[in-house]
């Protein structure tokens, strides 16, 4: 057997041209104000220098590749920084954003096509254009798109997204579920709770909407990759199973126990705890967990393979998570 490449499915690219595009447009100021309220002043103060020192790795393919070499990562699946979602934008602006994001991400990855694969964006706030945005991403040679956990006024269970799920299933496109912003708002505006509590909460809520609404029943072939190990849901799925069994309202929308759907999803390994990672592998299956680092942000890991090794998985499971699963998902070939 050949050894699979080491594949990191959670890595970001910063696209300054998108921020130039939306600068000064109506709606941006309100979106920034909401982000500021949700994160709080201390987090915003820390974010500036943190991002500033990472600009080369976020924008320069050569700096990215050097960092990958240092980490022992062969391939990255690169997605735009979630700060580029701009779900406040009107339909005309949203189309410009997704086109620019898709084309710029593809251009970044084209610098090393054997080592960089990319994801684009779709405007979830305009479901009627989401299929067109997905197809545009695929036309650029990208592997799929990145989506957030919700958009203002709509959850991922909204029937308006059925055409997107249908087309993603038909094309085999990857949908990378990565939250940006938590609707708990100012309750999390200290101590970076907006991220440490907010992100895993949003993951759990979004996945629960997809499961309990029957989206995964109607679209069993969807390739959804949940960032941050799926948040709180995989380690607390027993409560969902109990509700589905005990209550008619909880069990009305999906055909099977909620825990069974974890084996239809993919999860990155970024949980920051080897015991939690072992539990994620247990409940989802070793074939459903993929290496993830959140490159190059401070809430990620600079040693994703080391973090995986700390979970002390059986060798076959270790190599599947390290790269075998992602290589199959991305249809990579190692010569």
Automatic annotation (TrEMBL):
InterPro entries attached to this UniProt entry: ACMSD (IPR032465), Amidohydro-rel (IPR006680), Metal_Hydrolase (IPR032466)
Record key words, sorted: Lyase
Superkingdom of origin organism: Bacteria
The keyword Lyase is assigned to this record: yes
Transmembrane segments: none
Signal peptide extent: none
Domain (Amidohydrolase-related) ranges: 7-332
Pfam family, one: Amidohydro_2
Protein name: Amidohydrolase
Organism, as annotated: Streptomyces durmitorensis
